[in-house]
Design brief:
Distance between the termini: 70 Å
Shape: flat
Largest sheet: 2 strands, antiparallel
Number of helices: 15
Mean pLDDT: 86
CATH topology: MetI-like fold
CATH architecture: Orthogonal Bundle
Radius of gyration: 30 Å
Helix content: over 70%
Number of strands: 4
Order of helices and strands: EEHEHEHHHHHHHHHHHHH
Low-confidence stretches: 10-16
CATH superfamily: MetI-like
Strand content: under 5%
CATH class: Mainly Alpha
C-alpha cells in the first residue's frame, strides 16, 4: 500500500525525475575560456621569452664559456664554468669599478629623488604658469641621451666649455672637469642627476595627487606648520611611491653606459669607470671584443638589481602585514 505523509499519498520506491545532462556544455564553456585566456597570454609570453628569457640565458651561457670573436661565429667556445667570474673579481679593475658604481648610483638616486620631491611639492601648490614650468622640466627626459651627454661634454670642456668660461669671468682658473681623476666621476654624476630629475618629478607629483587635501586641512587646524605637514602627512603617505621610484632609479642608474661613455669613456684611467661601462668596454670598446668577461660583469649587475628587487618585495610585504 502507498504510505501517506500528512494525509497525502506517497509512492515508495518511485524513481526521481531524470536530470538534464549539463556537464558537457559547462565543460565546453570552461575549455573555451581557457583557450581564450591562453590566446591573450600568448603574445606576452612570447615577448618575455624572446626579449627577456633568451637574452638572459644567452648572457649566462656567454659568461660560462670562452667566447672569442671566432668562437662566437663558429659556436665552439670552450666551457670554463665560473672561471670568468673569478677572473673578473680578481681583476685590478673590479675594485675601482665597484666603488665607482656604488658612488655613482647612490649619489645619483638620492639627489634625483630629493630634487624631484622638492619640485613635486613645489608644483603641487598650483600657481600661474605652474603647468608650463612643469613641462619645461621634462625636457631632459625627452631629449635623446646622446644629445644630452654631448651637451654636457661640451659645457664641461676644459678649454672652450661654458662652465669654465663663466668661472674665468669670476677669476677662477681652468678646471679639467672630464680629464682629471678627481672630478671626472663627479662630472658624470651631475649630468646623470640632471637627466633623472624629470622621472622622479613626474612619479612623485602623481603620488601627491592621491593625497587628500582634507588631511592637510586637519593638520593645519591642529597647528602644524608647513614642515610638520610635509614630514607628518606628505612623506609617510608617499612611502609606497617613493619606494618604487627609488627601486626603478637604482635599476636605471646601474645600467647607465651612454652618458659616461660619451663624456669620459670611463677615464681617465679608471676614474669614472663603472661596472656597466666596464662590461661595454670589454665587449665593444677596445677593438678586440672579449664577450665572456663582459657577460660576467653584466650578470653581476643583474644579481645586484635582483637583490634590490627582493629587498623591495620583502619590505613591501612586511609593511602590508603590519
Amino acid at each position: 500500500m502507498p504510505s501517506t505523509v500528512n494525509g497525502a499519498p506517497v509512492v515508495v520506491g518511485a524513481a526521481a525525475p531524470a536530470t538534464t545532462r549539463s556537464a558537457p556544455p559547462r565543460r565546453r564553456r570552461m575549455s573555451s575560456t581557457r583557450w581564450a585566456a591562453l590566446a591573450f597570454l600568448a603574445p606576452l609570453l612570447a615577448y618575455l621569452a624572446i626579449f627577456y628569457a633568451y637574452p638572459l640565458y644567452r648572457n649566462v651561457e656567454l659568461s660560462l664559456h670562452d667566447y672569442t670573436p671566432r668562437a662566437f661565429v663558429q659556436g665552439n667556445a670552450e666551457f670554463l664554468g665560473l672561471a670568468n667570474y673569478a677572473d673578473v673579481i680578481a681583476s685590478s679593475t673590479f675594485g675601482p669599478a665597484l666603488r665607482n658604481t656604488a658612488l655613482f648610483t647612490l649619489v645619483s638616486i638620492v639627489a634625483q629623488y630629493a630634487i624631484g620631491l622638492a619640485l613635486a611639492v613645489f608644483f603641487h601648490h598650483h600657481f600661474r604658469l605652474s603647468g608650463l614650468l612643469r613641462a619645461m622640466f621634462l625636457v631632459p627626459w625627452l631629449l635623446p641621451l646622446i644629445v644630452s651627454a654631448s651637451t654636457w661634454s661640451w659645457m664641461l670642456n676644459s678649454e672652450n666649455g661654458i662652465v669654465n668660461s663663466v668661472l674665468e669671468a669670476f677669476g677662477i682658473g681652468q678646471i679639467n672637469w672630464l680629464t682629471s681623476p678627481d672630478s671626472a666621476l663627479w662630472s658624470v654624476i651631475v649630468a646623470n642627476i640632471w637627466l633623472g630629475i624629470p622621472f622622479n618629478l613626474v612619479i612623485l607629483y602623481a603620488g601627491l595627487q592621491n593625497i587628500s587635501g582634507d588631511l592637510y586641512e586637519a593638520a593645519a587646524l591642529d597647528g602644524a606648520n608647513a614642515w610638520q605637514r610635509f614630514w607628518r602627512v606628505t612623506f609617510p603617505l608617499l612611502r609606497p611611491v617613493s619606494a618604487i621610484t627609488l627601486l626603478l632609479g637604482l635599476i636605471y642608474t646601474l645600467k647607465v653606459v651612454d652618458v659616461i661613455w660619451i663624456m669620459t669613456t670611463g677615464g681617465p684611467g679608471h676614474a669614472s669607470l663603472t661596472l656597466a661601462v666596464w662590461s661595454y668596454r670589454e665587449a665593444f670598446g677596445t677593438g678586440q671584443p672579449d664577450f665572456s668577461p663582459a657577460a660576467a660583469v653584466g650578470n653581476l649587475l643583474i644579481v645586484i638589481a635582483l637583490a634590490a628587487g627582493f629587498v623591495y618585495l620583502y619590505l613591501q610585504r612586511r609593511e602590508e602585514r603590519s
